[in-house]
Design brief:
The complex is a heterodimer. Chain A is α/β, with parallel strands linked by helices. Helix content of chain A is about 35%, strand content about 25%. Chain A has a domain at about 1-75 and about 195-245: Rossmann fold (3-Layer(aba) Sandwich). In chain A, strands 6-7-8-3-9-10 form a six-stranded mixed beta sheet, with helices on both faces. In chain A, strands 2-1-4-5 form a four-stranded antiparallel beta sheet, covered by helices on one side. In chain A, α3 crosses α4, α3 packs parallel to α5 (about 145-155) and α4 packs across α5 (about 145-155). Chain B has one domain: ABC transporter involved in vitamin B12 uptake, BtuC (Orthogonal Bundle), CATH 1.10.3470. In chain B, about 75% of the residues lie in helices and about 5% in strands. In chain B, α5 (about 95-115) runs antiparallel to α10. Chain B is globular, with a radius of gyration of 21 Å. The chains are: A alpha/beta, B mainly alpha. The interface of A and B includes residues 88, 92, 97, 118 and 124 of A.
């Protein structure tokens, strides 16, 4: 499936919380410049996979290589500085700061940029997400959709080479979803690899060239979007039946 | 992209430049003021300087970094204790005061490792527990003679006028150095990272902020500043009684000053310290009723002006005298384009 060298390779990822197994041996490879969509029913472990890839949580077992380096033991800040950024499913703005300051923190911390360079990066990220007109608003005054856009802008301001998106499309109108798809396509043209968890499959397939489906902590299908969506196991997982 | 979007980031305004100039003029006036001031006024001003330092340091810790501590009396007590100790070893007491602040900062580094693992209320109360422990340990030193305490007798060797002047100038220099340094730190990119941690630690980590190292920096800075404040207080009070210096009332005062002035604003802590100082000057002799009044004032502010005096002013007027933030000024052509969408 992959035409290019992988930017990220996850090998045998497990994540357990006590007796609860959330990730049960996930092997995943993401190509340079690839756009990968992740679907799966609630509780399949999609967000946990993203957290483990981003370094917010350590895996219980398994390893992660990013740009040919083993980053399994690195925390989120170190991975971010290497170009691995994420958004959060429930937006986590820096609520006491302005929208611009939110992006500036990301630009100045992750990339180590300072002064005008950091301002340029932050402003560009806000412009990408159509957030310039609220740049000086305190983030706590934003509504949910604007908060989601701020999540994306802030992640972009870290200048990632791989961007992990967690349900940034939820609750959008059709027009807003079209805008979002257009934004993500621009990011791809800039050479950013994308991993995108999304429930709204028709939005996802407009960007993703490859889809994986997770269920009960495992990848149950991996391949071209149409093939994955018509896979019997995938259909069964969504309808709640036993995998065929 | 700069040319494309057309923007400018504003950090200084005319008003803020003017207010920094005012601060500079005030500092010069304060520095030469001893030639006109009587001994009583100088002692009071020294105390005001100490309060401003304490308020600014607690505000840095709680208002900017989100680290609410009710144990900052730990550093008041240690700053005073190390000053006594160094003077006992024969060091010039004035040099000892500044050195004591540095020792407090050095002690704060290893202390930060366990303490910064604690979150929220655990950290707040944990700091209080450490302060109580330090109080007990200091009492074990024969030099201190338990709760009886001891005096900074080394200061008696100096002429009273010279002594008062030097303490006053040390307090003023400490105030300007600490608040100036804090202002520059908060305006730097570290300052933005500190506030990001306060607002959401996980999100800060996800955009590359080294959370623990950044918190440690502000924890140690606040310890240093409060340590200096403790040493200065000892110099004005002369006697060191562990119970008084390790008392939780110090932190209660810091919280009062910061909440009344406006938490998380640079100007607020200073205003709060001045208000506290005035209340104490006018009503301090009223004993219990003074404390009741303080408590009632804090309560009224918490209910009616939760952002404090400066927080309310800032919100209503948008006025910023000592700004640490960033304002993006987007040019009108871009604004029109955005507006037309």
């Amino acid at each position: 499936m992959q035409a290019t060298t992988p930017i990220l390779v996850a090998d045998g990822l497990h994540k357990r919380f006590g007796a609860l197994v959330v990730l049960d041996g996930v092997d995943l490879s993401i190509g340079e410049g690839e756009a990968l969509g992740i679907v799966g029913p609630n509780g399949a472990g999609k967000t946990t996979l993203l957290s483990v890839l981003a370094g917010a949580q350590p895996p219980s077992a398994g390893s992660i290589r990013f740009k040919d380096d083993d980053v399994t033991r690195l925390g989120a800040p170190a991975r971010c500085r290497r170009g691995l950024a994420r958004t959060h499913q429930i937006p986590r703005p820096f609520s006491g700061m302005t929208v611009f300051e939110n992006a500036y923190v990301a630009a100045s911390q992750a990339g180590g940029a300072s002064g005008d360079e950091a301002y340029d990066i932050a402003t560009d990220a806000l412009a990408q997400c159509d957030m310039l007109k609220v740049a000086n608003r305190p983030a706590e005054t934003l509504g949910l959709l604007a908060r989601k856009r701020l999540e994306l802008a802030r992640a972009l301001a870290t200048r990632p080479s791989l961007l992990l998106l967690d349900e940034i499309g939820g609750g959008l109108t059709n027009a807003e979803a079209d805008d979002l798809v257009a934004t993500i396509r621009v990011l791809r043209r800039r050479g950013i690899s994308i991993v995108w968890i999304e429930h709204i499959v028709q939005v996802l397939v407009q960007v993703a060239e490859r889809l994986i489906c997770m269920d009960a902590g495992k990848i149950i299908a991996d391949g071209a979007p149409q093939a994955v969506l018509s896979d019997k196991g995938v259909v069964a997982a969504y309808l709640g039946g036993a995998p065929a | 992209m700069n040319a494309q979007t057309g923007f400018r980031v504003e950090r200084w305004t005319t008003v803020s430049r003017a207010s920094v100039a005012c601060v500079a003029v005030l500092a010069v006036v304060a520095a030469i003021a001893p030639q006109w001031l009587g001994p009583g006024a100088m002692d009071r001003l020294t105390i005001l300087f100490v309060y401003v330092i304490m308020a600014a340091m607690w505000n840095a810790l709680a208002g900017y970094a989100g680290l609410v501590s009710v144990g900052q009396q730990l550093f008041v007590g240690l700053g005073a204790y190390f000053t006594i100790k160094l003077a006992d070893w024969g060091l010039n007491p004035f040099v000892g005061m500044m050195l004591a602040g540095m020792i407090v900062a050095i002690v704060a580094v290893p202390l930060s490792y366990p303490m910064l693992r604690l979150k929220g209320g655990e950290f707040a109360i944990g700091m209080w527990v450490v302060a109580e422990l330090a109080h007990l340990l200091v009492n074990l030193d024969p030099l201190v003679r338990g709760e009886t305490g001891t005096s900074l007798i080394a200061l008696n060797a100096f002429d009273p006028v010279l002594r008062r002047n030097v303490i006053y100038w040390l307090a003023l220099a400490s105030l300007l150095g600490l608040l100036g340094g804090l202002f520059l730190l908060l305006r730097s990119r570290v300052g933005a990272a500190i506030q990001a941690i306060r607002d959401n630690e996980d999100a800060a980590a996800s955009v590359g902020v080294r959370v623990t190292a950044t918190k440690r920096l502000i924890f140690v800075l606040a310890a240093f500043g409060v340590g200096i404040a403790g040493a200065l207080w000892l110099a004005t009070a002369l006697t060191f009684q562990p119970k008084a210096f390790f008392s939780v009332q110090w932190t209660a005062y810091m919280i009062f000053m910061v909440l009344v002035g406006g938490i998380g604003t640079f100007e607020g802590a200073i205003i709060g310290a001045v208000i506290f100082f005035l209340i104490e000057t006018w009503f301090g002799s009223a004993g219990v009723w003074y404390l009741v009044g303080l408590g009632a004032t804090a309560l009224v502010f918490a209910l009616l002006l939760p952002r404090g005096i400066w927080g309310a002013i800032e919100r209503r007027t948008g006025l910023r005298l000592l700004p640490v933030g960033y304002r993006l000024d987007v040019r009108s052509d871009v604004r029109q384009e955005e507006g037309g969408k």
